[in-house]
Amino acid sequence: MAIFSAATLAIILRRTQRMATTGLDPLLRLRQSIAANDPPFTTTSSDPTPASDATENLATATHLQFNNPQHSYSLDTPTRFVSSDKAVDLRSIWFAWQKKDVAIPDYIASAQQLNEEFAAADSASKVRNLVFVERLDLITWLEGASEESEYIKGLEGDASAARSAQVASGAAGGVSTIPSSAAGARTGKTIDPRLQEIYNGERRMGDRNSVLRGIKPTDFSHVRKLAETFLSRSRPAKAHSTTSSTAHPSSSTQNSNLVSLPKQPKNHPSRRPDPIILLSPSASSLLRLSNIKSFLSDGIYTPPHTSTTAANILHISRLLPGIDAHRPLRFILVDTPEQFKPDYWNRVVAVLTTGQTWQFKGYKWQHPPDLFKEVLGVYVGWRGEDVPPA
C-alpha cells in the first residue's frame, strides 16, 4: 500500500480536478485547438454528420464543432469571459476571434450587420460587441501569448484545489501537524516542510494588462475632446488680445480690460448653444458622418464609406435669416449620444433614422412615438422604397 504525503495528495487532486474541468470548458478547448492548428468550425446541428451541416454564416449556425476529441458546443453557451459583470457567450467569442485582424470600425460594423440579420430572422441571438481592451485581452489569451486574463474567471478546479491544499497544509480544517516553528507558534499549526518548499517557489505572474495598464482600464479619450473644445475657443481670444494690445501699447487701463475679454462670452446674454443633429450609426444608413457634411452644406450626395480616421463629431454653419440675419448658426452632428450631458437633449433639433429601433437605445426617449413628439424625425431613403412605419 503506497503512502503519499499531504503535498503529493494535493498535487494529484489538483491535476485530476483540472483535467476533469478543462475537458468541458469551451473557452479552453478553443485555445487548445488554436494552438494545435486545428480550429473548430460552425455547424447548423449538434451532430454534424453530413457535410452540408457545416456553415461559415454565424447568422444561421447554432453549434461550434471541435475535433480530437470530437465535441459540439452550442453557440449560446456562456463562457468564463466576463464583460460588464456578464458572461459572454461562445458566439461572441468566436466572432471576435474571426475578426481579430480587422480594424475596430470594421469589427463594430460587422457586429451591427450580424445583429441586424438576427433581428430580421426574429432570432433572440445577438453578438456582444467587446470594447478594445477586452478584445485585445481575449485575442492575446487565445493565441497563447498570455497565461492569465483579468476578464476570464478561473476554473472551478483551481478553487477546489486551493481549498484542498489549505486542508493538506493544516491551514484550514483537516488534521493539524505538530507545531515546530515560529509559524506554528503564531497559528498553533505548521505547514509540511515539503509543501512549504513548493509554496516558496511559486511566484504570481502578471500580464501586460495588470502590470502596465493597471487593474481597471480607463479610457481618457473624452479628456482630449474636452481639451480641444477649450483650446479652439481660446485661440481666437488670444489673437484678438494681442492685436488690441499692440495698437494701444501706452494705455495700461485698456490692457487690463482686454485681459478680461475672453471671460465675457461665458455669461454673455446673446450667446446661444449650438443645436445638435443626431445621425444613425447603422451601416445601412445613406447619410453618415463621412458624407453628411457635403450633403447639408453643398447639396451633393456621395455614398458613405467606412474609415478608421473618420471624425466622430462634425460642425456645419448655415445662415438662417428667420433666426439671425447677420450671424450663421452652427450645428453639431454626431451619431451617438454616449457623451451627452442631461442638458444636451434640450439642444437636439433633429434625428436622422433608418427606422431601426435599436438606434434609440441610450436615447432619453427610447420609444419612437415619445421621441418624435419631442424631436423632429427625418428618414432618408431611395425613391420607390417603402417608408418605415411611424
Which features characterize this protein?
alpha/beta, five-stranded mixed sheet, 14 helices, 12% strand, globular
Question: Mean pLDDT score, rounded?
Answer: 75
Strand percentage:
5-15%
Strand order of the largest sheet: 7-8-6-9-10
Helix content, binned percent: 25-40%
The helix/strand class is alpha/beta
Gyration radius, rounded: 31 Å
Q: What is the count of β-strands?
A: 10
Distance between the termini: 80 Å
Structure commentary:
- The chain is an alpha/beta fold and 390 residues long.
- The protein contains 14 helices and ten strands.
- It has helices spanning 6-22, 26-35, 90-98, 104-120, 132-142, 156-169, 182-187, 193-200, 208-211, 221-247, 252-259, 264-267, 292-298, 368-374, and strands at 41-43, 63-66, 71-74, 78-83, 86-89, 276-278, 314-318, 329-334, 348-353, 376-379.
- The strands form three sheets. Strands 7-8-6-9-10 form a five-stranded mixed sheet, with helices on both faces.
- A hairpin with a 2-residue loop joins β4 and β5 (86-89).
- Residues 16-22, 167-171, 173-188 and 243-266 have low confidence and may be disordered.
Reconstruct the topology from this structure:
Blueprint lengths: L5 H17 L3 H10 L5 E3 L19 E4 L4 E4 L3 E6 L2 E4 H9 L5 H17 L11 H11 L13 H14 L12 H6 L5 H8 L7 H4 L9 H27 L4 H8 L4 H4 L8 E3 L13 H7 L15 E5 L10 E6 L13 E6 L14 H7 L1 E4 L11
Parallel strand pairs: 6-8, 6-9, 9-10
Antiparallel strand pairs: 1-2, 2-3, 4-5, 7-8
Helix pairs in contact: 1-6
What's a concise summary of this model?
Helices cover about 40% and strands about 10% of the residues. The chain is an alpha/beta fold. The termini are far apart.
